[in-house]
Amino acid sequence: MKIAFPNDFFWGTSTSAAQTETAFDHQWKGFQARGGFLFDRTTDHELRRDEDLEYICQFGTVYRCGIDWSKLQRSAFEKFNEKTTDEYKHFLNKLNKRGMSIILVLHHFANPIWFEKNGGWLNPANVAAFGNYAEQCIEHFGSYIFNWNTFNEPNAYANCAYVLGTFPPYKRNPNLTIRVLRNMGKAHSQAYDLIKKSYPKSSVSISLNTAYFKAVHPLGRIPAAIFDAWYHRLTVRNFRKMDYWGISYYTFMPFAPFPVTEVDNPGKLAKMGIPHDKMWGYYPQGLGIILKRLCKIRRIPVIVIENGICTDDPQVRIQSIKDYLKVIHDTMQSGVDIKGYIHWSTWDNFEWNLGPTYRFGLVHVDLETKNRTMTAAGEFYAKVTKDNAIEI
Q: Which domain holds residue 58?
């Protein structure tokens, strides 16, 4: 069966600067991830921009990417480093000339060391510092950008950095997340207004990380409900100014009665009969459920801003793309206004605390040489983006 998408539906892929460029002076530099890999040299993107551009341009007309705040701005309120600024401008210009529209992410989990030393997102005074950073991004890069994500997955960041303690600054105090999300929300509002002042026609939002939390044990009902409310509704309350829902979705998390993941409970999902990838339970239908629910809260357009699967098998990735696009198409038929689909990720990256062996890329990256190879999944997705349709 062939599923066709509307003529104005757009396709693309996504990466983040910290996960693809060699670490500069942010708080992830030197972190030892699973398997002993150091967060330092990631994928050499800054040395291979022209090569990576050729892959990017095969996957639709939109590229969602980030910039390294620590490399651009060496201290609070300092003017951007001229060399780094020029490098980014040159690359963004090349993308535009190849017909690529750019979604720019201002904050993707990585804070400069100077920002962390001043209290990070727990310090309300740092909202102004982020505002200055955003203002300079608008000044230097705004003419290349059609759409902005001020923050990537602030709920995932707050959860991992201040509840689970797996991200810097490695805190385990749920109460701190309220302060963190409040300050990030204020910074978002400030950046939103600055962008709209200079580029009123540009769309602005965040990427909200979503997950399908479900009790599979009677005692899991309350924890699942608490997780769902905290993860989705608490974040949304702090980010009022959004032109669209920017949604990322990867995860089905069963509660039995505690949350079960492949990362923390290897083999348990299989014993429970739950499909999964290398990280989480796999349930594409959860995306449709989440989208319908969020659009009842706030009826604005949607962009599936990140979606993918953690696997080493390109055929599994191909099936996942089919599964998710079927769900997205069905959800559109139900009345949800979905504007586009951005696949994560263009090429394999350094998956934060888990390291580079947790792969999401359409393009394979060799762990040692950093050489790139197009995968069968990449070829498949490239065809989908050209055809604006998929055979399932």
A: 2-391
